[in-house]
Every structure is written in C-alpha cells, then in structure tokens.
Write a structure and sequence with these properties.
The structure holds two protein chains of two kinds.
Chain A (H helix, E strand, L loop, with lengths): L3 E4 L2 E5 L4 E7 L7 E6 L6 E6 L5 E4 L2 E6 L4 E6 L8 E8 L6 E3 L3 E6 L1
Parallel strand pairs in A: 2-11
Antiparallel strand pairs in A: 1-3, 3-8, 4-5, 4-9, 6-7, 7-8, 9-10, 9-11
Chain B lengths: L4 E3 L2 E4 L5 E6 L6 E7 L6 E7 L2 E5 L6 E5 L5 E5 L8 E8 L9 E2 L3 E5 L1
Parallel strand pairs in B: 2-11
Antiparallel strand pairs in B: 1-3, 3-8, 4-5, 4-9, 5-6, 7-8, 9-10, 9-11
Classes of the chains: A mainly beta, B mainly beta.
C-alpha cells in the first residue's frame, strides 16, 4: 500500500522558472511532512518540512503548501537553478522518531 | 554533510551470501533507522533501533536483522542475499522527543548482488 503518492515522476524546467511537485497522503495520523533532496550517489538531505497546523512554509526559494482537508501538500521551487537538478522526495511521519514514509520521487532537471 | 557515516560505500556480493553494513549516528542521536532504496524509487523503511532495541519494523523478511551498540552505532545484516536485495541502503539518525526531530541520512551503501 503506497501511503504517499508523488507526482510528477520527472520535471524539466528552464532556469528561473518554477518547479512544482505534488504529494498526496492517506493516513490522517501523519503529523510531519518533510521534503528531501537527493543528488546521485548521496543520501537524502532535508530541504524543508511542515506540520499540519500551518498551510504554508517558506524558506528561501523553497515553499511548502499544505492542504489538510485534501490531504495534499506540494513543494514549489522558485527561480529554479541548474544546481537544483536533483531528485526530490516528499515524506510523512506519524510521530517524532517514527518511520518516514516516502513518495516515489520526482527527478527535476533545470535547463540553463 | 551530516554527521552520519556509513561503511562500506560500495559492496558486491554473490546470491546466497551474507552482508553486514555499518552506520555511525550523528553525535547526540540515539535512534537509528535503516532504509532500502531500490533504483528509481523512494526509500523503504526496514527497521529502527532505539536504546539497542528494535523499535518498529517495515515489511521486510527476518533475514534482514540489525543491532545497535551502546554508542548508538548500528549494523544491518542481510542473510541469504537475493538479486532483488541490490539497492542503496540508507541509515538515518534522529533524536526523538527533541524539538528538532529531523532525521539525518548518511550517504548510503550501494549493495550489488550478482
């Protein structure tokens, strides 16, 4: 059972454009929603995270939008740069320290 | 770079063999989780160790086992290796209960089973 569904699988955006990645979850017990960035040959690195008591969180060029009623959340990468080319994973977790459930990943390519 | 280190970085094993992967957690982190990431997929939770005890397990068979040591480092053991075990194995450390509850991942061990 895939509890976190992520789309699209891949994305090509021009430098300076906006990358948008969407995730949907099923388990209403999830209370923490991080996004990870992964470069080839590296482990995932935490990018930004949100809890369901807020609808939006912004850190630099990265923004999470969260819709609790729809059980959906998304990552927006503003002013996309070639260095942002990586695979992005959304994830969800039920309680502090509990396991992370990951989406399938989105491969983002930013063209110069 | 996180403070989580994994060894070895790459490994090639033959089907049926056994393998041990190692992880040193970030300083101050007492919980270690292991994930399997097949090529082109998201990481899948294998199990978690807290205070040297298994504290949650994903949908993996018993031939996947682990240990956590008093210094919070951890091992993942896989017996009777199968071709489908070929993947990137990730270790993540965290400190549950702390206000800073993020999990930090190591760079992973790439296991190839031939």
């Amino acid at each position: 059972q895939q509890q976190v569904k992520q789309s699209p699988q891949s994305l090509i955006v021009q430098k300076g454009g906006i990358s948008i990645i969407n995730c949907a979850y099923e388990n209403t017990a999830f209370d923490y929603f991080p996004w990870y960035q992964q470069f080839p040959g590296k482990g995932p690195a935490l990018l930004i995270a949100i809890r369901p008591d807020v609808s939006e969180k912004k850190e630099g060029r990265f923004t999470i939008s969260f819709n609790k009623s729809a059980k959906q959340f998304s990552l927006h990468i503003m002013d996309s740069q070639p260095g942002d080319s990586a695979t992005y994973f959304c994830a969800a977790r039920k309680a502090a320290g509990n396991k992370l459930t990951f989406g399938g990943g989105t491969r983002v390519l930013v063209k110069p | 770079e996180t403070g989580v280190t994994q060894s070895p970085t790459h490994l090639i094993k033959t089907r049926g063999q056994q393998v041990t992967l190692r992880c040193s957690s970030q300083s101050g982190h007492n919980t270690v989780s292991w994930y399997q990431q097949a090529l082109g997929q998201g990481p899948q939770f294998i199990f978690q160790y807290y205070r040297e005890e298994e504290n949650g397990r994903g949908n993996f068979p018993p031939r996947f086992s682990g240990l956590q040591f008093p210094n919070y480092s951890s091992e993942l053991n896989v017996n009777a290796l199968e071709l489908d075990d070929s993947a990137l194995y990730l270790c993540a450390s965290s400190r549950p209960g702390d206000s800073n509850t993020e999990a930090f991942f190591g760079q992973g061990t790439r296991l190839t089973v031939v």
